[in-house]
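Me: I keep going back and forth on a fold encoding question. No explanation is needed for now; the record alone will do.

Assistant:
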Amino acid sequence: MSDIVLSIRDVDRVYTDSGNPQAEGVEALRGVSLDVYRGEFLSIIGASGCGKTTLLRLIGGLDLPQAGTLRINDSLIEGPDPQRGYIFQQGSLFPWMTVEQNIASGLRARHIYKQKKGEVPRYVEMVGLNGFEKAYPHEVSGGMAQRVAIARALINDPEVLLLDEPMGALDSFTRADLQDKLLEIRRQNNATMILVTHDVDEAVYLSDRIVIMTPRPGRISEIIQVDLPHPRDRGGEAFVEIRNHIMEQFHMANAS
């Protein structure tokens, strides 16, 4: 992997109290620099409040830094764009729309539904929801709802898929199933994925590289390469060795 799709340089983000300009701001990120490669699965881990989601929101264009730059394919990120599909923790589906309507909603927003509506069944199949096309969000499970959200983002053919703890509220069996589905989608589409997670095992199972962040202000403590073939054995010696190394580095980052 040598093709850089996303470049982050010297990014700072400070949150201030607009009602009290004299109050000291909260420094969420300081001096973050990172390259992400096309087709890579990258995970970002760290303690609560370390700026993981802030960094993902900056990549998604949902927020802007005070300093530094974020570029995708050499274009400055200045706001949201379908090039960066964003999956929230709860999926955020439209409750009045069916599964297929939710998947197609981005096409309608971009006024290209007529040209691309024929692709909707392919994305329904890609996320394994055949037979549920006419179901509404309240009629499907949490894991299925997250699959809908993933398909809704993928149908826009994004350069990068951003995943903000999308499996955090799922039970362990549903979570494992969705992890395997993400890997399958990645293989099928050569998709670039960036995942924010608290789960070290999940990061090792899915990722090519894992970014460990320090507590606030969030900085990159270490980037760990995960050179294990898929499918990965969660109980295997090599897997456990990487997990233990990450836990050790994670504790060191929290203590620094």
